[in-house]
Amino acid sequence: MSPSAGVDIARAFADHKTRIVVQTTSAAEPETTALVAMLAETAQEVAVFDAPLGTAAEARRLAQTASGTFGGLDAAINIATVNTAELAGLGSIEDIEAFAARKLGPLLEATRIVSNRMRVMMSEGLILNIVMLNGPVSSGTSLIAGYLRSALAAMTKLEAESAAPHGIRVNAIGPRASLPGERPAVALASEPEMAAVALYLASKRARKLSGHMFDAEGALTSCD
Fold this sequence. Notes:
The protein is an alpha/beta fold. The chain folds into 2 domains: 1-10 and 19-50, no CATH class; 53-222, Rossmann fold. Helices cover 47% and strands 18% of the residues. The strands form 2 sheets. The chain has a 5-stranded mixed sheet with strand order 3-4-5-6-7, sandwiched between helices. It has a two-stranded parallel ribbon with strand order 1-2. A hairpin with a 5-residue loop joins strand 6 and strand 7 (220-222). Helix 1 crosses helix 7 and helix 5 (93-120) runs parallel beside helix 6. It is globular and about 45 Å long.
């Protein structure tokens, strides 16, 4: 979580009196301190981990520590942010593939670690991976965002199939790409809308919903 990503999602779960594990790299900043204090007012309990999450190895350490804090996890929401300025400098398919691997690698590692912990603890939980796209979108960056979305969809489908025998659900939210001439998708759905989706997916009503991806407007599409 940071002041610019994950706040509304964390707050929605806090308002439901849950126990929350928050990962941030800005815990010492006054704005983040205030946000954590806000969560603590309504959550049953809040644990904060001030650690980076830029590589798969770092994601593994965080997921192991976080899942052990409360003896397991019922829901894990992993967020990766992408600034469109990062996409503008990608000139070849190799560059795009490497960039997607860097962004999705930590999400994939966290998904597998948390899924394994849920399986061991016999918890039929939810894992939701979110890729947030920030900044203006051109036709070129939109196509790259579409590649990211496709890679996230493929990852979601495979991980959902692997986790399904254990009652664990894996879903995702990713950037929708708009082709030239179409109404542009500047960003994902607003974070309050993402929070509503996350709460629904974590509920018993969505127990059979897995392997799916929500687009920028929240429409549900299969990853097939």
